[in-house]
Amino acid sequence: MTIGPEVKALLWDLDGTLIDSFQIFSGVLLEVVALNSLMTPEEEAMRSNFHGTLEDSIRKALALSDPAVFAKVIDDFLRIQEDYYHTPDDHISPDALDLARRAKAAGLQQVVVTNRAHRDRGSASPRHIVEHSVLKTLIGDVICSDDTPFRKPDKRVMNDFLGRTGLRADQLLVIGDQHVDAELAFNLGAPAVLISRSGDAIPYLDQTNESHATVEVVTSLTQVLLYRATG
User: Left (φ > 0), alpha (ψ -120 to 50) or beta: where does 199 sit?
Assistant: First the structure.
């Protein structure tokens, strides 16, 4: 697809889009499972629940119902994952970095919008990841789940950004890898590009309210081109 001249800003999802975080999530979760003598989840259970908040992803992947066990699992996960994010450049997806650089050169604004929290996340905070990587020179804003009362796919998550920049919602392009990104685009009245690097179907996409006319699924973000005026 080609990003047209009407697009003024890219709204980047973080996990699975800008950074290859599933390998981190699954690796840390397996360490936590072993530490707590829990049943090892199937990869499909981890992958299909790898969306939304960290807490929701873990609870569903492990089918946990005991509050005390869940609290211990979350504490262990947050502690162990610290070791994985000390060098965030190692986890940035090359095709996403390529598009972000091209968008920067074209003068587009870029913002990360994530359901990952910032507070008490240490090196795994979205802001830490951006500020301590090559993304620092490319991304102008980072909106975390604890910055506003709203989370994706609620369009109000973008209220502050739109107010500060003076942009309209239809001047945005959502780039993500999950059905919630498609729903955010639908709610904003904006187009979306979803990345499926494996070529597999996006989980739950067929259950969302998104208009397929405004959502394009690609297997690499190098397939996303930038409009160039001719003549």
Answer: left
